[in-house]
Amino acid sequence: MSRLTTDPSAAPKPARKSEAPGDGKSAAAPAFAASASLDVPAFYKAKNYRAEDSIGHMMRRITTTVAQAVTNQLWEPGGPTFPQWAPLYKLYLGHATTVAELARECQLDTGAMTRLLDRLEAKGLCRRVRSVSDRRVVNIELTDEGSAAARQVPHVLCQVQNECLQGFTEDEWVQLKGYLQRLLHNAEAMAARGEKNDPASS
């Protein structure tokens, strides 16, 4: 939703800390002031930071490895690639029917999604169909071949993820999901605070 653009010159200036006696300099605002009131732990410290210990680094490595394993399981000549499986499966589940909806579901911009659908359509896995009720709307439908391909996705995803969880108990699996959900919640809250404090979003 668009917002009214305000005149930057009319916006109230942020309050500045008073100058310390005799030094002639104003105190600098602390970095990440938006998090100052939060109870943020200090598990990571700059003096001994190692990228390989970063939760983001480890999650990215896991995601990349899982994606490659899924690709290896699903790949066949002329078939969809791993990035193409997500919209294919979203269409199969009925989570989206238009380019814009698919783009939102897959967290891509509409241009990238349009190009991706072009490739799926060229492989005979989906087709564009003009809406009967509103000719301005173009819906995306799976072909029979696309539906057959999409039905493989949950089986392969379960197999690959179960292999990644070798050695875990069911209780540990449930606990791990809980930890990841908390991480996701914190990350989304942090992103929301950043958007709120971004002048470009006002």
Account of the 3D structure:
- The protein is mainly alpha-helical and 202 residues long.
- Helices cover 50% and strands 5% of the residues.
- It has 7 helices and 2 strands.
- Strand 1 (126-130) and strand 2 (138-142) form a beta hairpin.
- Helix 1 (55-74) crosses helix 6 and helix 2 crosses helix 5 (144-150).
- The longest helix is centred in the C-terminal third of the chain and has 28 residues, at 170-197.
- The radius of gyration is 24 Å and the shape is globular.
- 10% of the residues are buried.
Present the secondary structure layout:
Blueprint: H1 55-74, H2 82-93, H3 99-106, H4 110-122, E1 126-130, E2 138-142, H5 144-150, H6 153-164, H7 170-197
Antiparallel strand pairs: 1-2
Contiguous helical run count = 7
Kindly report the spatial arrangement of strands forming the biggest sheet: 1-2
- Helix/strand order: HHHHEEHHH
Shape type: globular
Distance between the termini: 11 Å
Count the E strands. Answer: 2
Mean pLDDT level:
81
Helix content: 40-55%
